[in-house]
């Protein structure tokens, strides 16, 4: 009869750790900060009860030596299984030097993680063979979640001394270039110089929220941000929950080729030159590392799993876009849970995903209707739809605001006051500067939150016919900035 294989463990490393704890109070502090009783092999029950006894003594602030440990084991009725007091002396003699203590602790930790991993795999297998699997995707997602929870259970890190952190920073500063262009941003470049200046690019681990009311251009801008990153050889993942991949790609081609989207869809008015541009654009885009997933109503766990898989395939993955987070679904079975709690789970999971993969995650979100009823119509953080958790979890919140010439007060039957008239005059002047028309809008990115940088305003031209956002010329940007300052003065005088 074949002998049953034992789960991974290293008894000698466990003995070395316990021996060091018996002989040195400082090693007790290090060990209890990094290990718990479950890290010791279950069949080494004597090691488990000895560690638990030392842990209790340590928490009470009592002296730790073979005599006090023996007394604690007597009180917990674990003396016989522990082998004390003789085995305690054997453990103390087993450690010759403390020099390799950290290595022994790491061995115990790694063996414990490997055991949990194998047990989890066995549990998944048993579930498959003994229980009904109604949804294969749910089973796979839950299985991956279990595996991830095991593999992500890492050691509690030690404090880092100032000299270590300073040394790492010195290395970083030595390689830091003077930021004079988009090419020197420290994160994933956005393709818009003023936005890069405010954010320094989208940083690894950041959750960025891009929010607007319907029709302002949030999907188009998220696509532009993805395209701008990919054009700089940054791999990008794009989850499109509202639009099939073919339609999404047509928008990218329209923006890249400079051919009107309507012409691309209908073929009306396509000249031979435009067809050539479209073909060349397709060839260029085929070389970009843009990965599109158009699963409608994708489940949160599936989204996370796909991102982890892509990160393993593309280690330099530089941006993940989710358009939009309101359509992501969870596997929560509690019907009584509010949508706010569900969105909170989604935003927290996306933030954790960004941190775990060290990749910026851009989530597109809706604004509520309150923004349309506010004088001036500029969105605020409080306008984020469904959950304050989005505002809390996000590192950067970008909001799109379209400059409109209609006089809201007059539309509501009220006579505009002098300040409202002046404000409208400034908006009309802004539109003239950028030559805005029905197909070209002046849309401003409002940086409402920026955890690692400045807040500010980034005016852009939204060429709706081409699904493209462009930066203003330097001259137009200066004029818009001056007009914006004038508008702020007008509105400030109302107070």
Write a structural description.
Helices cover 52% and strands 11% of the residues. With 495 residues, it is an alpha/beta fold. Strands 3-2-4-5-1-6-7-8-9 form a nine-stranded mixed sheet, with helices on both faces. Strand 8 and strand 9 (468-471) form a beta hairpin.
What does the largest sheet look like?
9 strands, mixed
Q: Return Rg in Å.
A: 30 Å
Low-confidence stretches: none
Query: What is the strand content?
Result: 5-15%
Q: Which class do the helix and strand fractions yield?
A: alpha/beta
Can I get a quick summary?
By secondary structure, the protein is of the alpha/beta class. The chain is about 50% helix and about 10% strand.
Structure characteristics:
52% helix, 495 residues, single chain, alpha/beta, 9-stranded mixed sheet, elongated, 9 strands
SSE diagram, text form:
Layout: H1 11-23, H2 25-34, H3 45-60, H4 66-75, H5 79-82, H6 86-94, H7 101-130, H8 136-151, H9 162-174, H10 193-199, E1 207-212, H11 218-230, E2 236-240, H12 245-257, H13 261-266, H14 272-286, E3 290-293, H15 300-313, E4 319-323, H16 339-357, E5 361-366, H17 370-373, H18 388-393, E6 396-402, H19 408-411, H20 418-433, E7 440-450, E8 456-463, E9 468-471, H21 474-493
